[in-house]
Amino acid sequence: MDLNHMPEKTPPQSSPPAVAKANQTSASPAGGRGLLLVSAVVAALGSLLFGFDTAVISGTTEALKQVFSLSENLLGFTVSSALLGTMVGSLLVGRPADWWGRRPVLVGLAVFFLIAALGCALAGNWYVLLLFRWLGGVAVGGSSVVCPMYITEIAPARRRGLLVTVSQLTIVLGILLAYFSNYLVAYFLGADAPTTWRWMFGVMTLPAAAFLAAALFIPESPRWLVKQERHGEAQTVLSRFGHENPAQEAAEIEESLKTELRQGHQRLFQRKHLRPLLLACMIAAFNQLDGINAVIYYTADIFRMAGASNASALMQSVIVGLTLLVLTLVAMTLIDRVGRKILLLIGSLTFVVSHGLAAWVFFTHAHGWIVMVAMMGIVGSHAYSQGAVVWVLINELLPNAVRASGSAVACFVMWTLCAAVSWSFPVIAAASGAYAFGFFALMMVLQFVLVLVFLPETKGISLEELQKRLGVQD
Fold first, then answer.
1. Is the distance from CB of 445 to CB of 352 less than 8 angstroms?
2. What share of residues in the chain are helix, strand, coil (percent, to 5)?
3. Domains with residue ranges and CATH for the chain
4. What digits encode the pLDDT tens for the residues 191-205?
């Protein structure tokens, strides 16, 4: 069933242009906003699975070490094996998203998530587990590119920050869901039961199946439709999403894409795209250099290192997930009011304080509530700053003609650094956690300086106007 071709209030494309335009702009704004929100939420289910897949392994690390006799180095490789997949998925998904459209790629990613969840749950040996963790990582990497890109391309400028932040909210919900499901599985089956880790992985089949079913029924991105010269369909979709002037917006999209439409595929790596690409990659890099995934992947291990029992560590992980959720909701109310840049600047400062406290905790071997405060400070800083703005900024900064390929490069940078952090963290933390968190604090000082000097504010500006302000001229 294709919603792009369902009967509409608008007349067929053969109708007189003036009549078509009048009818296209008469769609109910309330109905358009409803479809817009539903489509954004469906696309964001891919981000929910991104978060779930990222965090679920934190509850299985102790069991995996015992079942497969893993050293700290091999445990780090097991965790980062998914991230090797994210590098592949993020780098390769851009071209299929341009060839086939955003929606078919979302459907394919849902299939990958479903197969990966089943494969990890049923893995008979370590190598099979690595294979399906890698496949899940491919889906995560692809989702990190296509889900926020789709939402960016369907959203009106005045709501873009809020709607793209829905993607980050569902990442956080996925992380919280993973922590909570890990806790429930351990509670009912026993934290040390031999099949507990399998059920932890297997739970992901439920949201994966829901994503697969829902992704079949959302409209295609209007900007992708314009790239395919399907202007009537693009105007229809813009109208159904509640855009105020679909015909004018479609014309602006076409104008921004005129060189690509005339000359074919545009090269990403050329002078006029350099500034937006470097800014997008800078934001992507600091998204991992803020240390968030060191905490997310090894939350339970960090609390165990601080003296908590296995069950208690899983419960404390849920509290960390709740912190992420609450401050992500706060960020959603602020991102289109105060802007992206100010959130990054404030977040850099609270990151420095939080990582400094975590470094002190590991240096002095402090236990108890101070460990929780440090971890909540780190995830909270990420939730309202980097986590809230990264997907918004990457897709806002990159021009229409190269958004898919540019987003793929930025996400490749992000996941490469994520793999490096997740692989090295347990080894470094075993020697001295103070060094690891001290490094993250220094990176946040650097982020503050670079964001202050080089990053423009993007709130409330159309994607086409942003291209002009960044010097991307055809």
1. yes
2. 80, 0, 20
3. 28-218+257-469 (1.20.1250.20)
4. 778 899 999 999 999
